[in-house]
Design a protein that fits this description.
With 442 residues, the protein is an alpha/beta fold. The chain has helices at residues 3-18, 23-69, 74-84; strands spanning 94-102, 111-121, 134-136, 139-158, 161-163, 169-174, 185-188, 191-195, 203-206, 210-211, 216-218, 260-267, 270-274, 277-287, 292-297, 301-302, 307-310, 316-321, 330-331, 335-339, 349-353, 363-366, 371-387, 390-391, 401-410, 415-416, 431-440. The protein folds into 2 domains: 40-154, 2-Layer Sandwich (Pantoate--beta-alanine Ligase, Chain: A,domain 2), CATH 3.30.1300; 225-436. The model is unreliable at 27-32 (pLDDT under 50).
């Protein structure tokens, strides 16, 4: 071999040793499997997170639906909502578990939970050694899960008419085409039955069954407590010494002068009447020292064709108290034009029967005889009240009227025109916690 050829071969060898151009391709070829595996894992993990987020949205909405439903069908409703999000129980590796005894984060075990579980088959992740944590169709898979816990929300619903009785139908109408309780809600602790007219009340609630009462009608609502019974502890002790003159029958002994009232009076904080109280002319009450508590011990208040009214700026609460051997009702063919106090112990209370009274308390023609222009609450907790007339506000009071009785029957002309200003009139309307929409707690 000539020297020239040897020289050329040596130069070529030296160039080959110094040449780096093929190294990148070699390294890239060697790294390609690892790169593809990492890319596959990243893509697959991202899909897990996206699917889990979608599952969480479905679980949240389903739990809210279950808590809002809060009936025997809560589970089926929750599963139906989950299915609308694409997670149907028992399909495509999906399970939806629903409970109404979940532990609440704040304590108790009355929350509603929804758990959505889905198995997702592995695609590329298994090429880098990840075998999943479950199987799907016999193949490795990733188990995804979303859990939501909700509780039923509660709203305080105020009422302008409440029937406290729990036995049978305690709120009833006998055809009431002219009744208008719009702007008011009504509540019965028993059943509510409205024949021929829904009364126009915004919402009609019943602890039992509501049949036709209210524009919006709800049954099976929580039993309502009596918020005014405790006021009885503020009734002054009986000062009468056992003497309670009663209105006479024909040719009987007339009431003594201290039981007869006519004209203007300026009373202090408490005015007491022993036995029946009777008007002999229109009577107007003003206050010399704040609102007046008129307490009638073992007697009724007979308007006798006249009107008992409060002067501008005056407040009056009429209290009936005593024993069940007497009558304790407003009666007569006249009227009431009274406004309740706007502050103090008896704020917002226009008329109050002691809840210890269980007889002699029924009112047969409320709002009609006598007529009622009243601002405030009329509280007759053991009375059967037949409501026949229209109630408007007191001439010197705001637009606010509410009635609470054992049971109420409303005839065709019964209506409440005075509402909307109870807060300003000093009356906090009685309310009841009503189940509302669910809210998430976890």
């Amino acid at each position: 071999m000539s020297a020239r050829i040897l020289t050329r071969l040596g130069a070529a060898a030296r160039r080959l040793v110094r040449d780096r151009r093929g190294n990148v391709a070699i390294v890239a070829a060697m790294a390609l499997p690892a790169m593809m595996g990492s890319f596959g894992v990243g893509t697959e993990v991202a899909s897990w997170y996206a699917n889990q987020r979608a599952m969480q949205n479905a679980a949240d909405t389903a739990a809210l639906a279950a808590a809002s439903n809060a009936s025997a069908t809560y589970g089926s409703e929750a599963k139906a909502v989950a299915a609308q999000y694409g997670y149907a129980d028992g399909q495509n590796g999906v399970t939806v578990a629903v409970s109404n005894t979940a532990t609440c984060p704040a304590g108790g075990a009355t929350c509603y939970s929804v758990t959505i579980t889905k198995s997702q088959a592995l695609i590329l992740a298994q090429f880098v050694g990840y075998g999943g944590d479950t199987t799907l169709g016999g193949s490795p898979a990733k188990r995804l899960q979303a859990v939501a816990i909700a509780t039923q929300g509660v709203v305080q619903r105020p009422y302008c008419m409440v029937a406290l009785g729990q036995s049978g139908t305690t709120l009833r109408t006998n055809g009431a085409p002219k009744a208008d309780l719009s702007g008011c809600n009504i509540m019965s602790n028993g059943d509510a039955t409205c024949n021929g007219h829904n009364l126009g009340a915004d919402v009609g609630d019943a602890h039992g069954t509501n049949s036709g009462c209210g524009v919006k009608q709800d049954s099976n609502q929580p039993l309502m407590a009596d918020p005014f019974a405790s006021l009885a502890s503020n009734i002054p002790a009986d000062p009468c010494g056992g003497a309670y003159p009663q209105e006479p029958a024909k040719k009987g002994t007339p009431l003594p002068p201290q039981n007869l009232f006519a004209g203007p009076y300026s009373w202090g904080a408490v005015k007491t009447v022993c036995g029946d109280m009777e008007l002999t002319a229109d009577t107007t009450i003003s206050n010399s020292a704040g609102p007046t508590l008129l307490v009638i011990y073992n007697g009724s208040l007979d308007t006798n064709g006249f009107t008992l009214s409060t002067a501008a700026g005056a407040g009056l609460t009429i209290v009936f108290t005593g024993s069940n051997a007497f009558n304790h009702i407003p009666t007569g063919g006249g009227g009431f034009d009274i406004a309740a106090p706007t502050s103090g112990t008896w704020s917002g209370i226009a008329m109050y029967q002691n809840p210890a009274l269980t007889s002699g308390v029924n009112v047969s023609a409320a709002g009609n005889s006598p007529t009622w222009n009243i601002t405030g609450m009329v509280y007759l907790p053991h009375s059967s009240v037949t409501f026949s007339g229209a109630v408007n506000k007191a001439s010197n009071g705001l637009s606010c009227f509410a009635l609470m009785a054992d049971n109420v029957t409303i005839n065709g002309t019964g209506s409440i025109l005075a509402h909307g200003q109870c807060a300003a009139a000093g009356l906090t309307l009685p309310s009841n916690p009503i189940p509302g929409r669910g809210r998430l707690v976890s």
